[in-house]
Amino acid sequence: MKHASIIRLAAALLLGYFVFAASAQTPSCNKTVYLTFDTGNMSVAHQIAEILKRQDIKASFFLSNEKTYRGDFALEDSWKPFWQQLAKAGHHFGSHTYDHTYFVKDGPRGEVFERPQFGPKAGMTMLYNEATMCKEIRRVDQRFQEMTGQPLQRIWRAPGGKTSPTLIRMGDSCGYQHIGWSPAGFLGDELHSDKHPNSILLEKASRDLQDGDIAMAHLGIWSRKDPWAPAVLERLIVNLKQRGFCFGILPIAHKNSVDQSK
Description:
The chain contains seven helices and ten strands. The protein is of the alpha/beta class. The protein has one domain (2-248): TIM Barrel (Alpha-Beta Barrel). The strands form three sheets. Strands 1, 2, 3, 9 and 10 form a five-stranded parallel sheet that branches.
């Protein structure tokens, strides 16, 4: 009995040592990066959620009713449990436009030409006024509230990061701040994996991300053969933690976000 107690005490001391050693190796947090994810085809959505939970960090998700790898759409009831889980975990959410509607160019009289990727008018280039654009942004908010019982944060991101001052003003007038990403925050998950292997993307992001940067990836990409997540994501998070980064959620008063084509 005495021998067993000694063994338990030794095990406890050894465990305490490893816990202390692990915490001692974790640098203090003195800068912040903002991880963001656009819907995409949702093929790695659950893996990304698991990684964020395991690493105990929060991210910001920009939602659109995109077609998924299962043949359904990201804002249908089949995905309701997933969004409920993320909302309950404390992540933040913004609109990516309901039909993943791409900006084409400015139109006359303060309007814009847009091209939905999904929905009944997919592939058609149409003229949107302020009311039409607001409806397209707000539909995601309305649907998210139906699924989760909570609203989006008042933020949105144009598909492809394609914008103009006119389009940004439209979103502002609806009460939604446009959020792009930082130059170093383009994580490259939609690039072809033969020319941009995961190892290179990981090295670049781990090295180049700076304090205040907004990083952007997707919950799944059709064209990439070697998925970026989960191959890169967790290692990137660990690398950034070792560089002293915390992980923030949007919206923020930021200066490092840019609007640019993907």
